[in-house]
Amino acid sequence: MVVEGVEGVGYDEVVEIETPGGDMKRGQVLEVERGRAVIQVFGGSTGIDTAETSVRFTGSTVKFPVSMDLLGRVFNGRGEPIDGGPQIIPEEEADIHGAPINPTARDYPTDFIQTGISTIDGMNSITRGQKLPIFSGSGLPHNEMAAQIARQATVRGKEEEFAVVFCAMGITHEEASFFRKDFEQTGAFERLVMFLNLANDPAIERILTPRIALTAAEYLAFTQEMHVLVILTDMTNYGEALREIAAAREEVPSRRGYPGYLYTDLATIYERAGRITEKGGSITPLPILTMPNDDITHPIPDLTGYITEGQLVMDRELHRKGIYPPINVLPSLSRLMKDGIGPEKTREDHSGVSNQLYSAYAEGRDVRALVEVVGEEALSERDRRYLEFADKFENKFVNQGVNENRDLEQTLEIGWGLLAELPEEELKRIDPEHLKKYHPKYQ
Q1: 356 and 316: one domain?
Q2: Residue 250 burial (CB < 10 Å; 0-12/13-18/19+)?
Q3: Distance between CA 196 and CA 171 in Å, rounded?
Q4: How sure is the predictor about 398, in pLDDT bands with cuts at 50, 70 and 90?
Q5: Arithmetic mean of pLDDT, 328-356
Q6: What pLDDT, on the 0 to 100 scale, is given for residue 214?
Q7: Are 85 and 21 found together in one domain?
Q8: Does 443 map to a domain?
């Protein structure tokens, strides 16, 4: 809606709208020029009359009430409770745009988080405070994996306050119902805060939802000193909403119609992660995005990869084979893994096993591509071993149950079991001391 005759109004200011029927709606200022304000109405513009509707500018941006009562609650994309419970009695009302962390106060992420998923813990380990997105595709089981990580994520060997903030943007009623049921049935709800923005909710609300979720995470992490895992799904829907609003404002489009500030906007979400020195808490975001047409060069995954510290890439070919979770370890990467594993953090052989598995699987995939050209009969004995290794790696290491929670020792044991089938002289990436200590032949 456009309101004329206004002055002293600011960008992003919250607006209260009273309809002729007495309904109260809220909105946000999108644009201001020459005594005119363009307002995006939350919850749709039904019932608004140009003659009798009254508008009040509040003079402040969107704020969200925070307290420890957030845990175990479900909110909509505007931060209103939708679980039938009472309103939150706030300890404070926090600005949803947050405050930037002073770069000198940032603490380097080095603490390993165990997710119970072998391809993540063994090959692409997450550390507390790291930004690690999951690149998925339409129809791949990223929702199941997000729910599994939310249920299983723990910090090894420490009984610390751990919470999960789950933020869904533009999902269907069916998906929202799946997440709620899953968390209720598995008992994960007590340490969880859920924000659900559905596909039929307004686009502007989708812009607010991740910021409200991160405001809740910042309170839990930096005020209550809890370790918070933030799952953001689906960032592609967020980008589409941003494009829709930019088009409505008649902004000059950039690559594929997205606004030129897409990189900056995504950074305002991802960079709210991290740890602060002298504070016990941390925020570790796992953004999930579905790549349109499985295109990793699409602007949203492309820019996300620049901002974050690695990526987990889901593979349609693995999914077709019935492998869950279908994470392809070859294009996947965790840039902070080296700082979160090793003696006193995970296990001394972790790095060597990970590197050797990666190398052997990459070689096995190359042989698989060769077979399509020359046939299996033309392969040498060594090539056959690596071909067999690639199949076993996918079926034993990558493949696991939706409710299977593997600790790191089990993951490394499976890895050693696979490597034991290769000749010992081929295991060049593992320290000889670790080979003698952990190789099944010497047990």
Answers
A1: no
A2: exposed
A3: 8
A4: very high
A5: 93
A6: 96
A7: no
A8: no
Q: Do 45 and 165 fall within a single domain?
A: no
Which amino acid would we find at residue 273?
A: A
212 C-beta neighbours (distance < 10 Å), count: 25
Helical packing angle, 173-185 and 142-152, nearest 10°: 30
The residue out of 340, 358, 392 marking a domain boundary is 340
- For residues 259 and 231, state if they share a domain: yes
In tens, the pLDDT along 266-288 reads: 999 999 998 998 888 899 999 99
Average pLDDT for residues 142-155, to the nearest whole number?
87
How many H helices and E strands in the chain? 13, 20
**With DSSP H G I counted as helix, E B as strand and the rest as coil, what are the percentages for the chain, rounded to 5?**
40, 25, 35
Q: How far is C-alpha 386 from the chain's CA centre?
A: 33
Domain shared by 379 and 299, yes or no:
no
> Domain check: are 107 and 29 in the same one?
no
What pTM does this model have? 0.89
As for how many domains the chain has, the answer is 3
**DSSP 8-state assignment for residue 380:** -
Domain that residue 294 falls in: 64-340
- Phi, psi (degrees; rounded to nearest 5) at 164: -125, 130
417 and 286 fall within a common domain: no
- One-letter identity of residue 97: H
285 pairs with which residues across the strands? 230
Instruction: Copy the structure tokens of residue 212.
Output: 């409200």
